[in-house]
Model the fold of this input.
Amino acid sequence: MELPKRGLDRETLRATMCERKAQDADWHAARTFSLVYPANDEVDAILADANEMYLYENALNPLRFPSLRQMEVEVVSITKGLLHGPEEADGCMTSGGTESIIMAVKAARERARAERGVTEPTLVAPVSAHPAFGKAAHYLGLEHIQVPLGDDYRADVAAAARLLDERTALLVGSAPNYPFGTADPIPELAALAADRGISFHTDACLGGFMLPFYERLGEPVPPFDFRVPGVTTISADVHKYGYATKGASVVLHRDGDHLKSYQRFLYDRWPGGLYLSFAMAGARPAAPIAAAWAILNYLGEEGYVELAGQVRDAVRAFRGGIEAIPELEVVGDPVMSVFAFRAGEGSGVDTFAVGDAMDDKGWCLDRQHGPDALHLMLSPKHLTVADAFLADLRDAVAHHGPSRGKEARYS
Done:
């Protein structure tokens, strides 16, 4: 395509965009299970207002847009409180979990270099950890070493201990991980790191804005946040279960001085004056910051607890319905609203054939392997479609055919 000589009129543009958008996944009807996290129409309206108000501003310069700086500070402070950060903890907002993770890895690399003289650093993370850790290692020049999982689909602590050495800059655990929704043994892993002066990162991009409210509902929540000794950084995505629009995430440091010493970038060797940033981006969209601030203040603790209750009810309905189908089983013991399920051994059912059949019925299920499984991530709206989903799933299992060979799909 080339730039048109004469621009299209507004009506034509909108019609063309609507035609193309009709091909996208129907997340409004709760037919998708990742990528978008719908809460309710009221939340959508608040997000639309915030995005419209801050559509054009640039968060690069807080002196010109102090309202954005104030909102970012308050979002970070709220997140710090939810994750039990000490008074001296500090952090910043980023564009998403990947950027938060990259910045945590960068800070750990710089800390290892400054405090322990590490020049050829390694990053040790479970096999189930998000690919952002592999990306960070690739971008930042760390060797990426993977920790195998135990039979419970959690990081093997003994194996992790064997993989740590004088080169290790960062050890990682997930709360929970994306593939199986299981939480790694954070206290044991963090203790391994602390004993050796190694940074430890809890990836709570998924759980950071769900597990605190699960805990308030009285649900069992494994220890994962700054209450665990040895946890030095945590990532938590506001645009997941914080229900903000993309992209809004927070990375927190137990020691706020590490944010300034090891994460912050300062540059003055050019004619344009002092340049300072805490994350990868230079120019930063203002709308995600405003949306994150708006939705946190609109929902408040009571609103988040209510939404967490709806998610919990959806999990009970989906998981209970899946486990009631004899041929199917849930993988591991997921701790909240993300999990995978598969055909049990000896069931005669092809897991991916079931996924193909569900696709044909309009459900967008992700595929994954190790083991072959279908993946779900539930939001409040999914409670309204649980019965329909389970009826279609029972039918798909009963009439499974040979898989049409669809490749694994990841989010």
User: Anything to note?
Assistant: The radius of gyration is 22 Å. Residues 401-411 have pLDDT under 50 and may be disordered. The chain is about 40% helix and 15% strand. The longest helix spans residues 287-323.
